[in-house]
Design goal:
Blueprint: H1 2-57, H2 95-121, H3 128-156, H4 168-200
Helix pairs in contact: 1-3, 1-4, 2-3, 3-4
Length: 201
């Protein structure tokens, strides 16, 4: 009877050790996959931040000059929505983080339609409405991409992007604040105008 009990305990312990070993190996593999994903995606987002900052800085002038017709025209091509690598395991990371990353490109694509519509309403030769709308959205895109890359870096212990002579995140923040102030002033001026018109009526 005692031998049977010891035998059963041996089987249970052996099964437990096998299960733990499998669990540990799977966990290690998942952690490696998560870190690989974080590195690949963070690098992609870092580049996207830089591209957005370049768009925001685009004033439509080429070496300080307008085009041959006297118009402003974009000098920097706006980046497309991020396209993530195919060789990464999305199930290896936190579900909330996965949702944020996967929904980001569709958010960008949705706003791109607004930017295109602004072009149809913009007036030459400066196309101010379009340049402002373009900068407004890309400043937000760039800051959102930076935040996602930062979350990945913090969560999975990877090195963050550093800049020596240029801080694209600061540029994006300053531009976004400036546009918001400008829009608020225009809104207030428009509201005052409507109030005066109503008072005159």
């Amino acid at each position: 009877m005692t031998e049977a009990i010891f035998g059963l305990l041996g089987v249970l312990i052996g099964a437990g050790l096998t299960w733990f070993q499998t669990y540990w190996l799977n966990r290690q593999e998942r952690n490696r996959s998560a870190r690989y994903l974080a590195i690949r995606v963070a690098c992609l987002l870092d580049k996207y931040v830089e591209d957005c900052a370049a768009v925001v800085k685009d004033d439509g002038l080429s070496f300080g000059q307008r085009n041959s017709e006297g118009y402003l025209e974009p000098q920097v091509k706006a980046p497309s929505a991020p396209v993530y690598p195919d060789d990464i395991d999305w199930k290896s990371i936190d579900h909330e983080m996965m949702y944020k990353l996967l929904s980001f490109p569709s958010d960008v694509e949705g706003a791109e339609g607004i930017i295109r519509a602004a072009w149809d309403l913009a007036n030459p030769p400066d196309f101010e409405e379009w340049f402002e709308e373009r900068a407004f959205w890309h400043a937000q895109f760039g800051l959102a991409a930076f935040k996602l890359a930062e979350e990945l870096s913090n969560e999975y212990g990877i090195q963050k992007k550093t800049y020596k002579n240029w801080d694209p995140v600061a540029d994006l923040g300053k531009e976004l604040d400036a546009i918001r102030v400008s829009r608020e002033k225009r809104f207030e001026a428009h509201r005052d105008f409507l109030n005066k018109m109503q008072g005159a009526a």
